[in-house]
Structure formats: structure tokens, C-alpha cells
Amino acid sequence: MTQLTIREAISQALWEEMERDQRVIILGEEVGLWGGTYAVTRGFYDHFGPERVRDTPIAEGVIVGAANGAAMAGLRPVAELMTINFAFLAMDQIVNGAAKIHYMFGGQFKVPVVIRAVGGGGRQLGATHSQTPDAVFAHFPGLKVVAPGTPHDAKGLLKAAIRTDDPVLFIEHATLYQTKGEVPEGDFVEPIGVSKVQRQGSDVTIITYSKMLQLSLQAAEQLALEGVQAEIIDLRSLRPLDMGPALASVKRTNRAVVVEEGWRSFGVGAEVVSRLHEEAFDYLDAPVKRVAQDEVPLPYNRELEQLALPQIDDILAAVREVL
Amino acid sequence: MATVVKMPKLGFDMAEGLLVRWVKGVGDTVQQGEVLAEIETDKATIEVESEVGGVVHKHLVAENTAVPVGAPIAVIGEPGEQIDAAELLGQTSKPAAAVEQAGPAKEKVMAVESAEDGDGRLPGGVRASPVARRLAAEGGINLSELAGSGPLGRIVKRDVQAVLGAAGPAVAQRTLETVRVPLSKLRATIGRRMTASKQQVPHFYVTADLDAGPLMALRRDLNSRLAEDSKFSVNDFLVKAAALALREFPNLNSALDGDQIVRHGEINIGVAVALDEGLLTVVVRTADQKPLRQLSSELRELASRARAGRVRPADIEGSTFTVSNLGMYQVEHFIAIINPPEAAILAVGSVREEAVVQAGAIVPGSRLQVTLSADHRVTDGAEAARWLQVFRGYIEAPVHLLV
To answer: What percent of chain A has pLDDT over 90?
Structure first.
């Protein structure tokens, strides 16, 4: 095990996969000479060359479209979108292209593309650059949506995303790149579509992912001081959504809180609560609470932005409400 | 101006009070400071004085009702005043819909409903969490008799567990969940037949302790020359020995039918086979006439069909005597219930290695206990004991089972 940041973990995964498989290429805005807006691909251009690390025009539809075509033709492209907010410009290529081609061509073509996109708020980037539209993309069958919350999972899941023949939207959180954690030495893959118990507890189940996993873990430490043991389930991928560990946990704790960074309405929490209701109704001892972003365009002002985003105190309050 | 009277807190640790008696009835005039009702707390019966004067407009709880501190108990208004009690209660606090108690019972509990659910739209008329409902149903607890400790008076898991008693929440976390499993057809049949047998057949029991040494030696010797899938089990010998012994004792191979004893022409030995879902008795027909190897292979085939759930009707019908062997589970001995309409059943324990006295010296030996359960309507203890003697003869000189 070594301590890595999520940035290093993602960078390592890309590097190792490019070394392992000549078909893996990278394309996106400023990924080459500049080394990536979040410095994930720094050094890649010099090492792998301009053929495999390609700077593109500022045109997201082109980035994903070219990646889809390259994937259909036999490469395994990793397209980087500077923020997930720009993915809306590539929406047709993502949901009508990547997510549908295998199906609509009767399996004759595979689209093994990975779209890396940076999401989440908290960096004062304003309402149009700070969104968490994960649920929007998780809505579409045919597209895998992965959102890791630890360096370990970031590395293992990105490798899995590159190796799977299905298109994967890999959502990185803008404020998690410096988050450190233990990562195994050498090559390893984490399965996509498998939730993980990140902390064991007996009193309440917190179901979450990505940045909110880190906040939930901190909240759990505080709850432990009050004698409340929270079990934390990290969904890790939203599609496919593995409810197994969450259901097993809720059947023991009888109480659950779902924590997501996106807006509450029609969100990840809504989906999770619905499944708990369908499959664990007779085990619930309190209504399942959702912690989510306030339903406003995210403010630029630092204080207001933090106020609108879910915080540890919000998680604590929700847990106390269901206990 | 109407006033809602609430259950007063009459002691530091008082959580609820039992309203024993209304001193002022509906329509009575009450002065400020006059006694309105009598309340029994854990410690004493206390008179509750009215804080306002007026006319008692409504009692909100019946006598002999336990009421939480702060819950509304009555409405007092001006003479002739039109009072919308529901509206009034909505303004003040959640009204109490109390459950009447048959006298001052020890369990003083009540269900609390909020104003908007007072019309009984809650399932079963109570506010309870799904898990509380499930646990209550499994534990046979009536939720309407419980007080809820959750928000809005919701009955939650801990409330049901508190009533379920002994197993507190901490312990309950560790115990396996209580589940209700419908009786399988097989279980139901076993239950029906065994109950009938134990109730209607006068059983008696005779136990014998046999020397299993010669049998074990013979089996070892025979098996050493046989392929793995055709080796003899101890049970093969026991079935054969029982069948041969029955030839001499037709009363034990019989069935009572009204005022007649049916002595069967065939000796068909049933062998109990344990399955996950219950017990099945497979039948070796004319077991006394079959060579041991044939009997052994038939039994193996029957048992494997039973375990695979593929028995045929002929496999399990027509037994005239049953052998039940728990020897593989290291039991000293046990007593079996007769499988009607048979007259007897033999229960076989494990072969034990132990010290035995032989000609005044202690030597190592192999012993085996068997217990015959027999129907006293068709046979007696002496006959059963004599059957066991013959059976012992075969087991202790097992070469006779081969000829």
C-alpha cells in the first residue's frame, strides 16, 4: 500500500493502462502540452507522444464524437471533459451515440469509450460550472456511470472503465483531487457496479458516494463520539446501481440517510430511497432522509455556495432525525 | 374563550398519569381552583384543580385512561359558547385519542394520533413504522395497545422490542431474526401422523445393548474387497437382521385393524431417511428374502432418490416395520414413534468403542444400543424382548445374515 492523492491515482491508472494497451489514447482540451486542467495528464504528452495524447478544439461534441468513432474502430479512447457541465454540449454524442450504438447496431459495434468528467461544486466557479448532474446521466440505459470517492477506488475503477467494452462516464470531483488514501501497489481492478461498505456500524446506514462519502465519513466520526455507529455504503457507480450492501445494512439498522451533492428532486437519493422502499419496506423504522443540495443555481459567493451545498452538519442533523 | 386543560406534571419524573375519575362532568360549572379530576401517578392519587372557571365543554379522555404529561384532557369554555374542539386542539397541541383501560391496569399506555390522522386513515388506526408493524405481527402484539416513542407518537422498533421483553435491543441485534415458515406438506404430514400415533397407539419400549464387534469386523472384511460405491453400511445388516427376526414374530410385523390383527404376508422394512425438509421412509420389499448385496444396493438407490426429491409412490408405500438409525450422529440411543399402521419400530444408536467385561476381564469392545417401540395392542413386552434376543443373535453372529 502507498498513500496517493486521487489525482495521482487517476494519473497512475491512465499511465499504466496506456503502457499495458497500445489502443488506449487520450483526447480532450489541454490534455497534451498543458498536461490537463487538473494536471492529471502532466508528462503524458512527452512520454506517449502526440498520436496518443491529443489536444482537441474547444468543442465537446467533437471530443466525445471523435472518441466514439475511435472506439467503434478499435481504439480504447479516454476523453476528458474539463467539467461535466460541458458534457451538456456533448449530450447527443453521449446518450444517443455512446449509450445506444451497441444496442442499435445489434451488437455489431462496441463503444469502449471512457468519458472522464469533472463535477461538483465548492470552488466558486459559478452556477454554470459547479453542477452535479450525475443523476441526469445515470438515467440512460447503456451508459455506465462511475463516481469514486477514494484514491483506491479512483484507480481501480478507472482501470475497469478502460477495460470494459461498454461506454463509461467517469465522474471525478473537482475538490477531491488532493484527497489522500491507501492504494495497493501494482495493477488491480475494482469491479464496476459493486457498492462497498466503507465504514461498519449498527445504528444507521448512510448511503452516499463521491465527495459526500468523505463528508459522511467525517460525520460518522462525530456520531461515534455521541455513541451512534453509522454504517457507510459507498455506491461507487450509479449505473449499474448495486443496492445489495445498502439493503443488507438497512435490514440491520432499520434507519437510513442518503447523502448526495446534487439537487434533491429526481436525484440519486430519490432513486435509492425508492429502492429501499420497494425492497426493504418491512425493515424501516423511520422515513429515509435525504441530504442534498439546496434547490437553487449554486451561488458564486463563497458563504452562499457553502450554505447551498450539503455539509457535515446537514448529515448529522438528518441522522439525528431518523434515530 | 375556550381553554384546553392538559395533563399536569405532578412530579419531577412523572411521564404520564392515569385519569381515574372525572369529578366534573360535561356541562358542569367549574370554578377556578375547583377539583376537576383525579389522577393517579406512580406514587399517589392527586386531585387536579382547574386553572380557569367555566363550563366543562368536553372530556377528551375517558376515565381509567393513562395520559402522557401535557396531553389535552378536557375543554372548558363560557356557558353557551360554541366551541370547535378540533380547531382548538389543532391550535394548541396534538390531541390525544386515548385507549380505554379495563381498570387501573399496570400497563398504562395510549396511542397518540396527530390531528390530521384522527380520521383513522392510518393503517390499523395506529402510526407505526414498517419494521415495528412486522415485529408486532410476528410477536402477536396488538399495536393499538402500545405507546409510540418516535416522532408524532410513531411506534418504532424499540417500542415493540420493549414489549417483546427479555431480549432487549442490544441482545436482539445479535440474535437471529424470528421468522415464520409455513409448514411444508411433508412436515404437515409427519406432524399429523406422529401426533395420531403418539396419541392413539399405546407405545412401550424395550432396549438392548448388543456386541457390535463381530458385525464391525465382518463389515470391514467385506468392504475391503468392494468398490467404494458398493460398500455395505451398518444399516444394511440391521435391516436384514430385523427382517429375519420378524419371520419368527408375526405379531411385530402386523397392523391393528379394528378388532383384528393383520399379520402381513410380506416383510417390508421401512428405512427412515433424513431430508432437509423432513423425514421420509423408503421401503425395501421382502427384505428377509433378499441377499444382503441386493438389499444394500436397493437401499442406496432408494435413499438417493429420496434425497434428490424423486421418490416414486412404490418407494415409500407398504412398509410393515421401520428401522430408524441415528448412529451416524453419535447418539447413545433414542426412542422412535411407531409409524402407523405398523406395530413396531426399531431405533438404532451409534456403535461405541468401550470397555466391556468378558469372562471376568475388561477388554475393548464395540457396543450398539437398539430400542424397540411396540404397539401394546398387538404385542407385549416379553414378545418384544424375545424378538430382540433373536435380533441380537443375528447381529452378534452376523455370518448368518449372509446365508
So the answer is: 98
| Domain ranges, ordered by start, for chain A | 2-183, 196-322
* Neighbouring residues of A70: CB distance < 8 A, sequence distance ≥ 6: A25, A77, A113
Most confident of A57-61, B61-65, B84-88, B159-163: A57-61
Q: Write the CATH number of the domain with boundaries A2-183.
A: 3.40.50.970
B222 close to B216: Cβ distance less than 8 angstroms: no
Quick check: B143 contacting A, CB < 8 Å? no
What residues of chain B lie within 8 A of the CB of A254, using their CB? Answer: 129, 131, 157
Q: Which tens digit of pLDDT belongs to each residue from B255-284?
A: 999 899 999 999 999 999 988 878 889 999
pLDDT digit string, tens, across residues A211-221: 999 999 999 99
- Alpha carbons A90 and A80: distance in angstroms, whole number: 12
Cβ atoms of B296 and B232 within 8 Å: the answer is yes
Residues 145-184 of B with CB under 8 A from A: 150-151, 154, 156-157, 173
- A261 as an active site residue: the answer is no
Active site residue A129: yes
> Domain B185-402 - what CATH class?
alpha beta
Nearest-CA distance from A278 to chain B in Å?
Answer: 12
**B3-110 — its CATH code?**
2.40.50.100
What's the CA angle centered on B386, arms B383 and B391, to 5 degrees? 125
* Catalytic-labelled residue, pool A8, A17, A29, A60: A60
**Cβ–Cβ gap A285/B131 under 8 Å:** yes
CATH code of domain A196-322 = 3.40.50.920
Distance from CA of B152 to the nearest CA of A (A): 11
Place of cell 390522522: B117
> Average pLDDT over chain B, rounded to whole?
84
Q: Is the interface score ipTM higher than 0.85?
A: no
What pTM did the predictor assign? 0.54
